[in-house]
Design brief:
- The strands form six sheets. The chain has an eight-stranded mixed beta sheet with strand order 22-23-24-25-9-28-27-26, with no helix packed on it. A five-stranded mixed beta sheet has the order 2-8-7-4-5, with no helix packed on it. The chain has a four-stranded antiparallel beta sheet with strand order 10-11-12-13, with no helix packed on it.
- Strand 18 and strand 19 form a beta hairpin.
- By secondary structure, it is mainly beta.
- Helix content is 7%, strand content 51%.
- The N and C termini lie far apart (91 Å).
- It is elongated, with a radius of gyration of 28 Å.
Length: 355
């Protein structure tokens, strides 16, 4: 009986040993470690640490198949054409008719720090201080502005006025035409598509479509793109919209469907709270909410190319939520850039120069 007991114990220990070996042999780890950052243009070398010998390994980035090889040797990826932000790297190991995935993620940052710019004021124009500026466009010698605001939704909320869409005289600041938005709705950025003006709303997930000449409201349509509605601009072919984050959506101007996006990063990390947008000569200029600078973005990669210090343009102290810098418009024919802020008394024609 004693011999039988010893025999059974030996079998159990042997089985446990084999199980442990099997578990150890099946363990697979991957590097780089999740969250590792790289600059655009850097090479990413992916290593698999495994005791098993796979029949093949297929690598994918963001679910797009990149390369296949017959062993677990390191593989290197170029980042030159990658979008900025988090990228998911997955290795699928095939062995004996079965497959298993192991993944990691990396973050791609801009290749270099933004170039530093400052401004020079070329001319100062009056601006209506009742406008909580959310969108600004200058087209065909006409200045269009979207002013935000709505009725209080909480007792401690500051009332900043009712939202509106305006046509203004650049030289005098006089409002030539205005239509008011539902007082319960907060109007945001605007863009012109043909003979129509599109106006975003902040949290209501709708957009207003107006006749550009008469400001007649043609329709109210859903906006299911992005977290919220903030800034908007156009390159003539598609629309760009931000949503309170560091993401800029590409939108089909006729169908209002998302056709792509970029995540905006500098060389240190994401640039959040992108606000009013303007497309100028192949680049996107963006206000950053509550910040006294403008960032210039590469629409192909999301990299911040330039950072323009505007901190001395409007005197301190300010009165948040009003008096925040917001509003960039471009006169394509006259090559003029205009900037202003929420309830600012002036609109400035500026030129940007290297610091």
């Amino acid at each position: 009986m004693k011999k039988l007991t010893l025999f059974l114990v030996a079998i159990i220990l042997l089985a446990a040993s084999c199980t442990n070996k099997s578990q150890t042999a099946s363990e697979v780890t991957i590097s780089p470690e999740a969250g590792t950052t790289y600059k655009l243009g850097d090479a990413i070398t992916v290593n698999l640490n495994t005791a098993i010998k796979p029949d093949s390994v297929v690598y994918a980035i963001d679910s797009v198949r990149m390369v296949s090889q017959k062993d677990a040797s390191p593989v290197t990826f170029k980042t030159d054409t990658m979008l900025l932000g988090p990228r998911l790297i997955t290795a699928r190991l095939y062995q004996g008719g079965s497959a298993r995935d192991i993944s990691t993620n990396v973050v791609i940052l801009a290749a270099k720090a933004p170039e530093e710019y400052i401004y020079k004021v070329e001319k100062v124009y009056p601006h209506d201080t009742s406008s909580y500026t959310e969108g600004l466009i200058y087209q065909d010698d006409v200045l269009y502005e979207s002013g935000g605001g709505r009725l209080k939704t909480a007792p401690d909320e500051q009332y900043i006025g009712q939202s509106s869409l305006r046509e203004e005289d650049l030289n005098t600041g006089k409002v030539l035409k205005k239509t008011m938005v539902d007082p319960k709705v907060f109007g945001e950025g605007i863009a012109i598509v043909g003979n129509k003006i599109i106006q975003l709303t902040w949290t209501e997930k709708i957009r207003y479509i107006y006749d550009k000449d008469s400001f007649k409201l043609l329709s109210t349509q859903p906006n299911n793109i992005g977290v919220e509605g903030w800034g908007m601009t156009s390159d003539g072919n598609k629309l760009y919209m931000d949503d309170s984050t560091n993401r800029i959506w590409f939108i089909d101007k006729d169908k209002w469907t998302a056709i792509g996006y970029i995540d905006v990063y500098d060389n240190k990390g994401p640039v959040d709270s992108l606000n009013e947008l303007e497309y100028i000569d192949g680049k996107i200029y963006a206000n950053v909410y509550t910040k006294d600078y403008i960032v210039v973005i590469d629409p192909k990669t999301g990299a911040v190319l330039e950072k323009i210090d505007m901190s001395t343009l409007f005197p301190q102290p300010r009165k948040p939520p009003a008096e925040v810098m917001n509003g960039i418009a471009y006169d394509a024919k006259g090559k003029r850039i205009f900037v202003t802020g929420k309830k600012w008394p002036h609109l400035y024609q500026v030129k940007f120069v290297k610091k």
